[in-house]
Amino acid sequence: MTEDNPFERVVEPWEAVMEDMAATATGYREAGYSVLELHPGDVAVENDERYGLDVLVPGEEYDELERVTAAATFDSYEVYHAREAGMTFLLLVLTDPEAEQAVCCPAYYDDRDVEALERRSHAEGAMHTHVRPLDDETWVTFTHDEPDLFFPDTPDE
Questions:
Q1: How many domains would you assign to the chain?
Q2: Does 87 fall in a domain?
Q3: Burial 63-89 (b: 16+ CB within 10 A, else e)
Q4: In-domain check, residue 90
Q5: Could you identify which of 26, 27, 115, 127 might form a hypothetical disulfide with 144, taking C-beta atoms 3.0 to 4.6 angstroms apart as the criterion?
């Protein structure tokens, strides 16, 4: 493994995020929501015209996401985050309370990317999460008008 590959740094914390996602989804289901849990194979930071977080999910999950987003308006969201080993881990929970639908989307970014990502999201007044299948020909984009929620206030000590 090279030093640029974050795999070793993310394995254990990523498993904790996935456990948190399952628990969060259970809570929403108990409250009567239908919940789609996404299981990214990769997450990258994009800083071009499609800036934000680029989240790669399995094709079946992407197809379900397209179906769900066509039938619901996800105008509410919460962002849970933790920092560990120079990485920021996120659990984004998007909801449509009226349709009682939720999407749980875990993600992460390397703290080396935070300055550019934070600067760009503040300049644009929004953060974006792009969820896509492997083919990269189509994607679902969520726009978040409170970018500060994606950036924890205190760095690792």
A1: 1
A2: yes
A3: ebbeebbeebebeebebbbebeeebbb
A4: yes
A5: 127
Which domain does 69 fall in, by range? Answer: 7-150
Residue 2 lies in a domain: no
Q: What is the pTM of this model?
A: 0.89
Of 72, 4, 1, 89, the residue nearest 34 (C-alpha): 72
Residues 6+ apart with CB under 8 A from 99: 71, 72, 73
Could you identify the residue written with the tokens 């206030």?
Answer: 153
Residue 46, strand partner residues: 52
- Segment 29-72, tens digit of pLDDT: 999 999 999 999 999 999 887 899 999 999 999 999 999 999 99
CB neighbour list of residue 3: distance below 8 Å, 6 or more residues apart: none
Lowest mean pLDDT among 5-14, 15-24, 77-86: 5-14
Give a yes or no: residue 156 inside a domain.
Answer: no
Give dist(CA 58, CA 42) in Å, integer.
10
